[in-house]
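Continuing the series of single-chain predictions for the mutant panel. This is the parent chain; the variants come on the following pages.
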Amino acid sequence: MKSIHRSFRHIYIIILSIYFITSTHPVKAQGFEQVNKIEVKEIELLPGILSPKSWYKKDSTKIITYHGLLDKGESTFNLVDGFSLWQSLTTQWIINDKGLFEIHGSLAYDLSTKEVLGRVHLGYTKDQINYWFINIQNLSEDFKKEKGELAMLDLFAILFAKRNYKKYYRSQNTTFSWRRMDNKSKWDIGYDIELEKVLPLQNVTDFTLNNKSDRNFESNMPLNNQLEPNQTEEMLLFTQEAKVRYFFTDRKESFIQAHYTLGTKIDEEKWFQQLKLTYHGTTYGSTHRLLWTLNTGTFLGTTPFHFSQFHQYESTSSDVTTRAISNEWFLKDDYGMATSKPWTDITLTLQSRRFLLTQIDFLHQTSAYESIYIKTQFTEGLPDRIQTGYTLHKLFETLSLGIVYSYAELSPNTLGFYISLPFMESISKKRYFHKW
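Parent structure:
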């Protein structure tokens, strides 16, 4: 057994080294307007093996992409699945100058659970205004979904720090989506209809490269005072979501958004409703800009059936994140912040290309910028929270550093230093086209 673990350690060290060699090639940012984004180009090292390989029809109307023997688009290891080897293929048909039909497929065999995992994603548009999508999957999904920790960051924490931040459930899901997104219009509209079977998962392995630490991995069960045991059990759910977003400016930075969800349990005559409202504003300037966001919402009638249907926050219990530090709540138990009751949170952020450290010519000549922010969170049944901080963004193109102070009622105040690695978000982006 020790020899097997030793072999796995060698394999992972090689895989992770290749991952960074073939993935991270930062490109300089293009001005203050795009400071929240970073473009990362993939180095084509041994296409088809260590990086994707594409084949084009002569008239370029068909493109087939094999994502390589080392498919970096999927997580190859976590505690609930163990080790799995993913293979992915994407085929695109260019219909006309605006039309596109795409099929993406990913498949893996889980060596620990002996289960087949995968997804099939179809996308179609004929006018680049109306987009249609079908997604079918059998995967381990974070209870927090898109607001959960990045899988690759969690992988590094497991292997090198013997920490597991993400909590998973099995998602056997079929989703049909429609989006109307006209660049000439200030309105975006979306609708999703979803049938999902959810199943509980437990840790099946405690493999790590950090055998010197006596720390034990956490259970896969999320901790939350509002969570009932039956809200993580097996169930079949039918969900509809409607989204409407209106942009106040042509730059589409300031908007108001409404999001309504209606969910039902297939085997019971029960339902729940959720309504979310978001207002986001941005004031531009050549050197400074101000951003503010108001989020509020409630559940109408009944509470959610499953923990994934709670309102989730962008939060982490790690000292390292891939998102903007001002977007994160840094908590000891980040799943404990999720709520099935009314909530409101407000964020105010000042970003500047000339503030404190960016007064230094060396930094001012780069894409680095600074921000100071304050945000609050008010949720029924949870302590009110205030968090404020200072962040130096995009240091050396790919690194952000921040100092954060947090206050919560009946809880110890905290002052911490945090790191953001935004380039990992770009590397982990989906291999198929999708919209809002």
